[in-house]
Amino acid sequence: MLTTKQKQHLKKFIRDLGLVRGRHTELVSVYIPLGYDLNKIIQHLQQEQGTASNIKDAKTRANVIDSLEKMIRHLRLFKQTPPNGLAVFSGNVSKQDNKIDIQVFSIEPPEPLKTRLYRCDQTFVTDLLQNMTEAKEAYGLIVMDRREATLGILKGTSVRTLSKMTSGVPGKTRAGGQCQAPDTLINNGSLIELKDIKIGDKIEGLDLKTNNLVDSICLDKWIVKKDRSYIIKTADQKITCSKDHVFFVKEKERIIEKPAEELTTKDFLIGKKFITKINNIEIINKQIELVDISVKNKNFFANNILVHNSSQRFARIREGAAKEFYKRIAEAANKEFLNKPEIKGILLGGPGPTKEEFKEYLNNEIKKKILAIKDLTYTDEPGLHHLVEISQDILAKEAITQERKLLQDFFEKLARSPERTAYGLNEVKKALDYGAVDKLLISESADEKITEELEEIAKASNAEVFIISVDTQEGQQLRDLTGIAAILRFAIQ
What domains appear along the chain, each with residue ranges and CATH number? Predict the structure, then answer.
């Protein structure tokens, strides 16, 4: 594993190379694996010089040949390939079109190189080095509920979002959002309009088991606005309702439930005294105010037509949609986490029992990797960060947890015992000169020269040096607080 200093040095090297842009495919990148014969690499580059002589554009031809020549001279300075191999880059770094400045850059990587590569391009190839700066082990992150899911990955101190998805699961509504026109007639001992019904009133309905009329208590009542309504007409009745309102339909020897939007003129409705056929259905695309009620026995007569007010049907719809959504999340998890040896474990989070329900839809191999299931509120990108934060018991040895604890310790001391802390370049330098620094915290965003200078001073007093990422909220706080801070061994004046 790379030390913090090795990682920062390599990151700076990659950043510097990334600033160079070729006008054409003229920047040369060469990776030499450990143990590979340097003479063979030099011979290969000499052959490439011959090939480059065929490049039509005179400037590009000259730049490539000169870059190869400088790289060959540089490689001849090495007696043999370094223990971890060598990465060499050469090209024109001048930002002025009329000026040529061919430079060579090389680095012995902190980890063994196993790939041989030669490439001419408009940018230097740094992917193999970049991979070395990234954490090798990772944790899969899933935060979800029935409406939304976000998958992410934790690598080192970085939390990255992999995919986001939403479901078609309807939101819970009171009694399913089934509503009717305010002037619909209801029997509560006498015929009155629905808008005049009060909670506690007894409303006439039907016991479907005995086929007897029964009274059912009104449990709740509320007003809703809908952008579309349905007018259902029979030979002697008319009822205006929302598309969701469920009717009892006689079908052969059974009674089924159908919402208004699924009714047809072939359907027969259950009336108070007889079965009645639908003659016409009219859809009105205009906002209308409707009344919704909830009754104990789940049905009542509205304009002498038996209607349902139970949310059971919508519960079934929600259940079906939720299951489909769980399958989609599981498929996404398979794509991101299945057969990925670098995934050390998986953290799963979400509100309520949904995460436990969803877990059963996961592939067994993924299920075995679940390290913790956590309760949390958010199921979007902030939810990923919250999941990591509340899983510190599981991630105790991981870089992100150690970094967070260190910064939390600093900020806590800054609030309660400010004399045991220092921040800002001048204050921290002063504390270092006194030998008072126990832990030196430097943001990775800090100037490279300042970082190197402070590291050198810290060595003299055996102060621990920590390079802090800006991937976490705490790391961003340090960056905003000058980017340089220290926890002190003792207070100084």
Answer: 4-133 (3.30.960.10), 138-169+317-389 (3.30.420.60), 174-310 (2.170.16.10), 399-488 (3.30.1330.30)
